[in-house]
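User: I'm putting together notes for a lab meeting next week and I want to include a structural view of one of the chains we've been expressing. I don't have a solved structure, so I'd like a prediction I can at least talk through. The sequence is below, exactly as it appears in our construct file.
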Amino acid sequence: MQEEPNVPEINYGQEDQWETENRCGACGHGLIDRSENADSVLCSACRERFIRYPVPKLFIVFSAVIAVLLGFAFIRFPKVIKSYKIYVKAEAKAANGDIVEAIQGLHTVMEQYPGSVPVAVRLTDIAMDGGFYDDASYVLSNNLSGKKMEASTVTRMNRYIDKLDRFFHTYDTVQNMQSKLEEAKSKEEVLETGYDYLNQLLSDPEQDKALVYYYMSMFAGDAVEARRCLENSIQEDDNMLDAKVQLATLSRRQGDLQYAENCYNEVLLADKTYSSASRGLAIIRLLEGKKEEGLDLASRAYEQNPEGDYVWETYLIALKENAKNTDADALVKEYVSKGNELDADFKSYLDGNLSLHDYYIDE
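Assistant: Thanks for the context. Below is the predicted structure for the 363-residue chain, given as structure tokens.
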């Protein structure tokens, strides 16, 4: 029997697969034209149609709207980033002594985002930690009152409020003391009346003891009692920076320059812009004979706060000690032209009748 010839079978599946892979991706009928582009997925007819087909007007409008929105977003984006950086870096700035810059920055952020609880809380924390009680009181009243916060935050804010209530209550109470002082007939009686009035406030739990002791130091009968009051004030509230400055100045007048310097430096670590502390350090440097460094510190204090207590005077003395007489004379002339009068001791120093040591140290 003759065998049938071996005829290869036709695989119709492969043909179907080839046609599927080479059909136009748009119409699905024509074969893909790869004459101009090896990666094309369109037939020649569809390619021409897509080249000539215009972009839908609705799509153009939609794209324009998206572009405008993105434009606004990118315009606002830098401001958001800047505000966020201020917020994040505020605590580190305050810890580094740039507390004024930190607080001012957070106030700027609060103006942009008055409803932001985290920013308001951070501002309040920094202000309270640094003794900027006016700033803390303002934010608590205007930005945090009635806002929802975590329980621990509420507890802390209430503690701040209690402190501020006592502080400002004491301030108002001391202002009311003025009428009693006006009845006094001599300087000694003024000091005694003021000291006794304040001393009685120490037993009132609604008063801020740190502030009471601070004011008592101003009415103390002698340097020993003034020192005790200032030390008690600082012990009650370590944020009483001016009490530290006054304690440093008292120590300097008593000749303890090292203790005074330590106090001034402690204040400047908390607040680099505290002009009274910079002024105090300037005096110490001048007394030590480090005249250029003294002038630098006095100049810094003058730039920070030209109207600060004795800041102008110390700057003028630093100029004189550094033989910058022309600048010093110009300052005196300007000062006197405004109707001001020179203190007798200060005038004695300028006239050469009182030494720098005798002017700044009591012995």
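A couple of points you could mention at the meeting. The chain has 19 helices and no strands. Residues 1-13, 51-55, 72-78 have pLDDT under 50 and may be disordered.

User: Perfect, that's what I needed.
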